[in-house]
Design a protein that fits this description.
By secondary structure, the chain is an all-alpha fold. The protein contains 10 helices and no strands. It has helices at residues 2-31, 52-70, 72-75, 78-83, 85-112, 117-144, 147-161, 163-177, 182-192, 195-220. Helix 5 (85-112) runs antiparallel to helix 6 (117-144) and helix 7 (147-161) packs antiparallel against helix 10 (195-220). The longest helix has 30 residues, at 2-31. The radius of gyration is 19 Å and the shape is globular. The two termini are 28 Å apart. The model has no long low-confidence stretch (mean pLDDT 86).
Length: 221
């Protein structure tokens, strides 16, 4: 009973975070429904808004990002994993397609043209490349039937998906706590937006998955 209550509480906590994240992303997306070139993020990208390739990549990246965030509702709930496996698989496939074939190429175009000069561009290129790799590995591992490896790579992948939220939270914190010029602020934010997420993912994997594997191995002996 305690284990059930613990898992339920964890699911509720995760769902609350995901609901807040989806709400924030929807708020960002709705800013750009008008397709005006001077709203939201585009206000700081006036040098690129007339570039059709860049602008198309931007809208694709923004409008499809919500699908990758929504996948979290089925990827990390023990209840859904046990009771709604078909839904888990369907949204998992949508997630993989959205990341590998839509968000990765569009994100790379944005990364190479990011504000904040070379350090910022390097950060976003690394972010996008790792996002692609972790997602691909998660797909490959589940096709092989390696559920534990699949779960580890999905956790890493989703940690980078969540950078869409943490990037904006860090920007809010930094801009209200320090006085940086815009380029420096963007550079720091680019790295803070995903590196702590990955560190948290590795901590979670070590604490909850690797330890469980070790415990199961001990029992088998």
């Amino acid at each position: 009973m305690k284990a059930i209550l613990k898992n339920t509480a964890k699911d509720i906590f995760v769902y609350l975070i995901l609901c807040a994240a989806v709400f924030l992303m929807l708020k960002i997306i709705t800013e750009h429904f008008t397709l005006k070139s001077d709203v939201g993020f585009l206000a700081a990208k006036q040098a690129y808004v007339n570039n059709n390739i860049w602008r198309t990549a931007f809208y694709i990246h923004v409008f499809t990002s919500i699908f990758t965030l929504l996948a979290g509702f089925t990827q990390f709930s023990s209840y859904v994993l046990k009771e709604h496996r078909t839904l888990h698989r369907i949204l998992g496939r949508i997630y993989v397609i959205a990341v590998l074939f839509i968000n990765f190429p569009s994100g790379m175009i944005l990364a190479f043209n990011a504000n904040g000069e070379l350090p910022t561009r390097i950060a976003f290129i690394i972010l996008d490349s790792l996002w692609f790799w972790f997602t691909l590995k998660a797909f490959v591992e589940i096709r092989k039937g390696n559920i534990t490896a699949h779960r580890k790579f999905m956790i890493r992948s989703y940690a980078l998906t969540f950078s869409a939220i943490t990037l904006r939270l860090w920007k809010l914190i930094l801009s209200n706590s320090f006085t940086f010029d815009p380029a420096t602020l963007y550079m720091i934010d680019a790295w803070l937006g995903f590196v702590p997420n990955l560190l948290f993912a590795e901590w979670y994997i070590s604490r909850n998955i690797n330890r469980k594997q070790e415990s199961n191995g001990e029992r088998e002996r």
